[in-house]
Amino acid sequence: MTRHFLRDDDLTPAEQSAVLDLAQLMKADRYGHKPFAGPKSIAVLFDKQSLRTRLSFDVGIAELGGNPIIVDTQATHFGRGETLADAAQVLSRYVSAIVMRTYGDDRIAEIASVATVPVVNALTDGFHPCQLLADLLTIRERCGATHGRTLAYVGDAANNMSHSYLLAGATAGMHVRVAGPSGFDPDPAIVARAAEIAAWTGGSVSVLRDPFEAVDAADVIATDTWTSMGQEGDGQDRLTPFRPYQVNKELIATAKPDAIVLHCLPAHRGDEITDDVMDGPQSAVLDEAENRVHAQKALLAWLAGYSA
After folding, report:
1. What is the Cα–Cα distance from 303 to 6, expressed in whole angstroms?
2. How far apart are CA 180 and CA 187, in angstroms?
3. Which runs of consecutive H residues, i.e. helices, occur in the chain?
4. Where would you find this protein in the cell (predicted)?
5. Residue among 150, 171, 170 at smallest CA distance from 254
6. Binding site: which residues?
């Protein structure tokens, strides 16, 4: 059966650990793994604009020996005049995997429902699972392990990063705390699913209102932009409710002294994170950004059945 990666809990704890193990091997020997040599082609489709996602997949697929085909769907007739399912069936005859960055989760689910090659979620409104693999790889490197560590995410708790931290963190056996203002809470179904996974892995899940309570003695502090792509013109005031959730020196002082700070980028400096934290000694943001390459290479190779 073709395996897809549409959300974080599509990997079991053992599978997530195996992908991260492979990512560490690939990072240590960056050009030594060529499972897509031939080369095999991989379609990378973009409904949403991107910098890091586009380049990290492009570079990573090339380093695996493959041929990345980057498609801006706004500049093609992909999905217009034909169903996504029809297009996906054709692409499955051309390429070895389909990667897509889009809006609604229903769009990528429709593609995966008929694709005969692996489909990978490079970001949807609901989840950002490839980013979380990079984050977990960074936590492994900086904290030694993920299991048993406490991760605090503060800010827009209703967005895709919050959902992915809940699911991926629980899968990794972490204690995940999410804190956001009223009206910006995570999907209750995602919280329930994360709690179910955490009960299995030894982690835990908490949804809080107080950012200082969330960050207290945490190993990892994470945040994201307060206004996600596509929300810029909705007229909703996010600055006022989110201001108390800014990641600044006062907030991170309540975490462990060696806690690390993550941000998936792009960052709105002075809003969700201050310059001194973003550029400070506890920031792991640049490692996190680089690890997109290694984590995504490992994921694609693993989905293709490759093991080092």
Report:
1. 12
2. 12
3. 13-28, 52-63, 84-92, 105-114, 129-143, 160-171, 188-201, 211-215, 239-242, 249-252, 275-278, 285-303
4. Cytoplasm
5. 150
6. 101, 128-131, 160, 224, 228-229, 264-265, 292
Q: How far apart are CA 223 and CA 97, in angstroms?
A: 30
- Catalytic residue IDs: 101, 128, 131, 224, 264, 292
Separation between Cα atoms, residue 284 and residue 287, nearest integer Å: 5
The CA-based angle 264-226-134, given to 5 degrees, is 15
DSSP labels for 168-203?
HHHHTT-EEEEE--TT-PPPHHHHHHHHHHHHHHT-
Q: Give yes or no for a contact between 245 and 188, defined as CB atoms under 8 angstroms apart.
A: no
The amino acid at 77: H
Which residues have a Cβ under 8 Å from the Cβ of 183 and sit 6 or more positions away?
241
Tokens for 302? 């693993």
**pLDDT tens digit sequence for 67-113:** 999 998 877 767 566 788 999 999 999 999 999 999 999 999 999 99
Q: What is the pLDDT of residues 181-198, one digit of tens each?
A: 999 999 999 999 999 999
Compute CA 213 distance to the chain's CA centroid, rounded to the nearest angstrom.
24
Structure tokens given for 291: 């690890």
Tell me the binding residues for carbamoyl phosphate: 101, 128-131, 264-265, 292
User: Is the CB of residue 191 less than 8 Å from the CB of residue 199?
Assistant: no
On whether the CB atoms of residues 129 and 8 are closer than 8 A, the answer is: yes
Q: What is the pTM of this model?
A: 0.96
Residue carrying structure tokens 């059966």: 1
